[in-house]
Amino acid sequence: MARRVTVAVVEDQPVAVQGIRSWIEQDPLRRAEVIASGPTIASVLDGPGCHADVLLLDLELNGVLVTDQVADLCADGRRVIVYSNHDDPKTIMTVTEAGAANFIAKHESGEHCVETIIAVATDRPYVTPSVAGAMLAEEAVQRPQLSTRERTALLLWFQSMSKSSVASRMGLSEATVRQYIDRARIKFAKVGRPAPTKTALLARAIEDGLIRADEVGDYQSRASSPPPAGR
């Protein structure tokens, strides 16, 4: 049995914490578990929550917005999912640009919450309804021009393939694939639209019409398939 994804919850409303625990416990596959919760960031990170795979962060704690702390948490290498009632497009894009791996609005379903947690922990893209809405609402003044190779590398990577599998499928080295993905990030950053995480980069690509949402899905890696006869 695969190890469960561990989750730490920073939330000052006990009822909300109980709701999150209930959603996770009701997952038929039992893929995650809450190992720590508390009303402040410090109270959670001072204990076992420090080692959680995912940090689920309410953006407003004890009446104070902690938006400015998202970047620091992400800079420490934490996978942060913002969970908030503040789901206007500007706030969503601000926290994702600060490095948050994803955003969940509190009115969204438990299924979205659980799937987002698993996706973030396993480095897979997952666009919640609130993030999709923010993408559509944002006015993109400039759109970067990606090469065909850059777009192909992104698409295969978004289809849950590892970079090594993308390299095998494209007939390139893994270093070259990384270069294509990094180059795409740089191009978005240069037009003032940074995409520091996989989900943010997917959001940008869909927003600009570079990739269609229906193109993103599980894809069998050529590297994991048996080689054709005679080779």
UniProtKB/TrEMBL annotation:
Q: Which residues carry this modification: 4-aspartylphosphate?
A: 58
- The reply to whether Transcription figures as a keyword in the UniProt entry is yes
User: Where does the record place the Response regulatory domain?
Assistant: 6-121
Q: According to the lineage, what is the superkingdom?
A: Bacteria
In terms of InterPro entries, this protein maps to: CheY-like_superfamily, RNA_pol_sigma70_r4_t2, Sig_transdc_resp-reg_C-effctor, Sig_transdc_resp-reg_receiver, Tscrpt_reg_LuxR_C, WalR-like, WH-like_DNA-bd_sf
One example of the protein's molecular function in GO is: DNA binding
List the SMART domains: HTH_LUXR
Membrane-spanning ranges: none
Q: Which GO terms describe its biological process?
A: DNA-templated transcription initiation; phosphorelay signal transduction system
Listed SUPFAM superfamilies? C-terminal effector domain of the bipartite response regulators, CheY-like
Q: Known Pfam families for this protein? A: Response_reg, Sigma70_r4_2
Alphabetically sorted, this entry's keywords are: DNA-binding, Phosphoprotein, Sigma factor, Transcription, Transcription regulation
Alphabetical list of PANTHER family matching this protein:
TWO-COMPONENT RESPONSE REGULATOR
Family statement drawn from the similarity comment of this UniProt entry: Belongs to the sigma-70 factor family. ECF subfamily.
Query: What is the protein named?
Result: Two component transcriptional regulator, LuxR family
Q: Which organism is it from?
A: Micromonospora eburnea
